[in-house]
Amino acid sequence: MSGRHKKSCRLLRNTKLGGSLAAATAVGATAISLIAAAPAGSSEKVDATSAGALAALPHRATAPKEPHAPAALGKSADNVNAKKREWLPTAGDALKLAEAQVGVSEDSSGGGTKFQKWFVSSPWAERGVQRDGGKVSDYANANWCDMFVSWVGAQLGVKGMGADAFTRTHAQWFKDQGRWGDNATPGSVVFFSWSGSKSIDAIDHVGMVIKDNNDGTIQTIEGNTDNSVKVRTRDKSLVVGYGYPEYGSSDA
C-alpha cells in the first residue's frame, strides 16, 4: 500500500457516542482547573469521541542540585541553591524519545499500545468525555496518532505541546495559542490532510517533524501509521500546518 495512513486519526474507530457521561463530573477539580478550555465549536460530532485539545499539565524538571561551592570561591550553599537552573526539554529530547518508540504497534483490536493506555488513565480522557460524551474506555482501541504525540509531550513535560486524541481540536488549540504556522522545524507537530486541503476541519493525521528535507518533503515520526510507530517521508502538499511547542535551548 502507499505510505498514507490507513485510517483517519480524526475519527475514533468503532464507537457510537453521544450524550454526556455522568461519571465525568467526578474529574478532580485540581486537574481540570489546570486544563485550558477547548475551543468552542471546534469538535466535529462524528462517530467518535474526542479528548480536549488541552495544554499539558504544568510540569517542569529542574537540573540536579549543584554541589556546594568551595569556600575559596566565597559562595554559600544558600546562594548556590538559590540559582538552580530550570531545565526545559529540547526538540532533540522529544524526537529522541519519539524515535525510540519506532516499531511499537497496536494489537488485533486496534489497541494495546502504551499511548492508548496512558491516555485512558490521564485527565485528558475524562475531559474529552465531558466535552463530547461517551466513556473513557472508548479510547482504549481508538486511533492513536495524536495520543502518541501527546504521550511524548507528557513524558518530558514539554510546555505548549497540548494533549488530545482528536487531531482537529489539537490543531485548533495550537492556533488559538498563537503557536501555529507554515514552517517545518524539528520537533514541531505536523498536521496532515490527505485531500491536500489547508483547512483545520479537514485534518486526518498528525506526527512530529524530524527535519525539512528541502526538496518539498519532510521527514516525520508518526504513531498509528500502518498501525505502528514509523519514520516517514511526507510531501509538504499534504500539510495543513504546524504547531510549535515551547522547547528549551539545546545549549541551556
From TrEMBL:
<protein>
    <submittedName>
        <fullName>CHAP domain-containing protein</fullName>
    </submittedName>
</protein>
<feature type="domain" description="Peptidase C51">
    <location>
        <begin position="140"/>
        <end position="224"/>
    </location>
</feature>
<keyword id="KW-0732">Signal</keyword>
<feature type="signal peptide">
    <location>
        <begin position="1"/>
        <end position="22"/>
    </location>
</feature>
<dbReference type="InterPro" id="IPR007921">
    <property type="entry name" value="CHAP_dom"/>
</dbReference>
<dbReference type="Pfam" id="PF05257">
    <property type="entry name" value="CHAP"/>
</dbReference>
